[in-house]
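Convert to structure. Protein one:
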Amino acid sequence: MKEVLRRAITGAVYIILLLSAVFLNSDAFDFLFMTFGLACLYEYKRLVQLKGYHIFIAYLALWWVFIYLVPDQVFVNDKVLINILMFLTLTINFALITYLFSKKEKLFNTLQKFIIGLFYIGGGCIFLTMIPYKDNEFAKLLIMGIFILIWVNDTFAYLVGTAIGRTKLYSAVSPKKTIEGTLGGFIFALGAAYIMGQYESIINPIQWMILAGVIVIAGSIGDLVESKFKRTAGVKDSGAILPGHGGMLDRLDSLVFAAPFAYLTLNIFSYVS
C-alpha cells in the first residue's frame, strides 16, 4: 500500500509539473525538457559507464542551436540543419533497434557511447521540444495530446497485461511485458487519439490515429531499448530521482525514442495537407 501511495504522489507531482510548464509559457516548457534531458543523460552515463562531462556540454550546445538559433533563423539553411539532426537521430535509433534484437550484449566503445547518448537522448529531447512549435505558435494541446497518448498506452498496457496477459512480448529483455498488454495499450491509444481529434483541429482524427500508432510502436521499442541497457548494466532502474518510478529515463524512455518519429510524421502531415 505504501508503494502504491508513493507512486501515486510522485506521478501526480510529475503531471502537475508538466502541465504547469506547458500552460505557463513556451520558455518554461523548453527549460523543463532541457532539464529532463540532462537528467536522462546523467542516468544514461551511469548505465553505460561513460566517463566525463563532455556529453552535457555537447547536448547543451546542440540544444541552444536548435531551440533558440534555428527558430530565430540565424542560419540561412535552418531546414537543412533540422534534416541533418533528424537523419543522425533516426540513424542512431535504428542502430539501437538492431542492438535490441541482437543476441549479444554489445559493449560500445567510449565514442559510440557518446554519440548514442547525444542523439538518442539529446536528439530525442530536442525533437520533443520542437513538436509543439508550428507557424511560430506554441500548440499546447498538440503536445499535451502526445503526452496523453503515451500515458493511455502505458496505463492500459499495464491493466490489460495484468488482467489477461499470457504471451511474453520479449522475455529476454523485459519479462513482465506481454503481447496482450501491448495490443491493449495500442487499441486504447487509438481510441484516445480519435477522441482528441474531435477537439484539437491542428490535425484531423485520422491523422491523430496515425500519429498514435507511430508514437505507441516507437515508444514501446524505446521502452525495450532502455530495458536492455538496464539489463546489460545489471540494474532494475536507471536512477532513483522519482520515488516509486525509478529514474527520469525510466519515465521518459518512450517519449524520447518516439519524439523524432512523431516530429517527422507531423511534418509529413503538413507537407501532404
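Protein two, convert as well:
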Amino acid sequence: MDIVSWLVEKGESTYIDLIEPLREGTAEVLLASEAGVLICINKNTRCCALFDEQALPDFAKLMVGSDDALCVHEGPLVEYLKAQGLPYHLGCVQAVYPSKQRFVLSSEVAIQPLGLEDLDIVLAHYKHADRAYITERVSAGSMRKAVVDGQLAAFIGRHAEGTIGMLEVLPAWRRRHIGEELEKAYINLLLDQGRIPYCHVDTANTASLSLQKKLGMSWGKDVIHWLN
C-alpha cells in the first residue's frame, strides 16, 4: 500500500499533516490500512486519521497511554480519547499553500534566522511552549525573525511535527503587516526546500484565519484536534 499516494487521492489539503512527514522521512508508520492511518512524527507526535469506526479500538490502543502529543482528524476517535480522560487542547483547521509561486517580499523588513540570543524575547511573548521546546526549535534552525529598524519585531517557526506556527508580532510592531511578511518569507523558505507549507489554525483565531485566506491558502476539510 502506497500510503502517500492513497492519502493524496483522498485529499492532499486535508491529509497533508500525514503526507508531508511521510514524504520528508520524519514519520514512522504505526498502523495503516484502508481503515485509517496512524504515524509517529519525530518520536513525539502521533497523528491519526480514522476512516472506519470498526477499527477504532486498534488505533486507540496505540494512543491511549502514550506521552506523545496527539493530532487527530475529526471523527469518533476524538470523542473516544476525550472519554478516556486525555486532556483536550484545541481544534484547528488546516491551511495549505497550494502554489509553487514564491512571494515577493518587502525590502523594509529583514528576515533573519532567530538565534539563542533571542530566546528571552520569544519566551516573553509566546506562551504556548516551554523553554526546552523553543530552544530545540531554535537550535534546529527552524525559526526566523523579522527585523525592522534594527529591532526584532516578530518571529515564526516550524513545529516539530511540520506545521508553520509560533507566529508572534511584538505589540509595538502590530498593524504594520509584519506578520504577513514574515509568513510569506517562511513559505518561500519551505518552497525552496521542496516542502509544501501548511499550518494549523485555532478555529477561534479569526485574525490568523483571515491572514491565511489573504495569503491564498487552501483549507482541509477536517477539523484537526490536539490532545495530550
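The longest strand covers residues 218-227. Residues 3-24 form the longest helix (22 residues).
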